[in-house]
Design a protein that fits this description.
The chain is of the alpha/beta class. It has three domains: 27 residues, no CATH class; 133 residues, Rhodanese-like domain (Oxidized Rhodanese, domain 1, 3-Layer(aba) Sandwich), CATH 3.40.250.10; 121 residues, Oxidized Rhodanese, domain 1. The protein is built from eleven helices and 16 strands. The longest helix is centred in the middle third of the chain and has 16 residues. The radius of gyration is 20 Å and the shape is globular. 42% of the residues are buried.
């Protein structure tokens, strides 16, 4: 290979770098990028900044985008654009691959583009919009994707360049999906995990829902999947804000919760939104490549009367 020895090529691959034409090593996309990095790269060729703000977590909507956004960003409403659909009475499911592939193409995204996603950055709930879309890109086989740490709130607080009005005309991209099942856990796989050793189930919902004190409206029974550990979504960002905690802090929280940082792990919540936060932290920040998301989560699980639910604290009337 030109410009690189065999030893250099092997070293680059071992370091997690992609090797492009001519043997030139290029850094793989980091899971998190800073607001300053986004400001420096947003309008460069091959970079697509994706604004997914929506009412989730008070994140806003298209009118919020019109009033101010990262320069050169394109907009896609996380709640309404089609990133999630209702399937078999279960809300928030991953759409069929062809459908979500078309959604990505409609945003002008090509396979070679570096996609940088940002949410509002108000709280962990709204940052879940970014992690869920990030996870979707991973399921579609795209590894060149990042999240802006801190969301738009951090970008605006840093007084970085913004724009007003409609987004740029994206046109149609040529993005082609290559489905990666390893990121997605099915109901059958979760059920099997109850009888397997070495599989950690992680409930990323608030502790009250985990205990069964509170039952969300999308679920049919209160409680959690038997044996699951609880790492609430609000633990994963600093003070339940838009910035992710450091690796050292996350490891300390996982240790407290009894969750290993390696080995097979299935994250779940009610509909796979908060679970994407837990998966992102485990898979992308802690490097556990055996982590996955149970897309249907408790909304799907509690609809099947044959599947067990553990209610650790029973309250009369619940």
């Amino acid at each position: 290979m030109k410009n690189m020895t065999l030893a250099g090529w092997v070293a680059a691959v071992a370091a997690g770098l992609s090797v492009g034409c001519g043997g030139v090593a290029m850094a793989a996309a980091a899971p998190l990028v800073s607001p300053q990095w986004v400001a420096d790269h947003a309008c460069k060729p091959g970079v697509v900044v994706l604004d997914v703000r929506s009412p989730v977590g008070g994140g806003g909507n298209y009118y919020t985008f019109l009033r101010g956004h990262v320069k050169c960003a394109v907009y896609s409403n996380y709640k309404k654009a089609g990133w999630r659909v209702k399937a078999n009475d279960v809300p928030g499911m991953l759409p069929p691959t062809a459908k979500v592939q078309q959604l990505v193409r409609s945003l002008g995204i090509n396979n070679g583009d570096h996609v940088v996603i940002y949410a509002a950055g108000n709280n962990a709930l709204d940052m879940g919009s970014a992690t869920r879309v990030f996870w979707t890109f991973k399921v579609l086989g795209d590894n060149n994707v990042s999240i802006m740490n801190g969301g738009y709130a951090a970008y605006a607080a840093a007084k970085l360049p913004t724009a007003r009005g409609a987004d740029k005309s994206a046109g149609n991209g040529d993005f082609t999906a290559h489905f990666q099942s390893r990121y997605l856990a099915t109901e059958k796989e979760v059920d099997a995990a109850l009888h397997e050793h070495g599989v950690t189930l992680v409930d990323n919902r608030p502790h009250s829902q985990y205990l069964g004190v509170v039952m969300p409206g999308m679920d049919k029974r209160a409680g959690t999947i038997p044996g699951a550990k609880n790492v609430p979504q609000s633990w994963l960002t600093v003070n339940d804000g838009g910035k992710f905690r450091s690796v050292a802090q996350i490891k300390a929280l996982y240790k407290y919760a009894g969750v290993p940082t390696s080995g097979k792990q299935i994250n779940f919540c009610n509909t796979g939104h908060w679970a994407s936060l837990g998966w992102f932290v485990s898979s992308q920040l802690l490097g556990n490549k055996d982590a996955s998301v149970y897309d249907g989560s408790m909304s799907q699980w509690t609809r099947n009367p044959k599947l067990p639910v553990q209610q650790q604290l029973k309250i009369a009337g619940n």
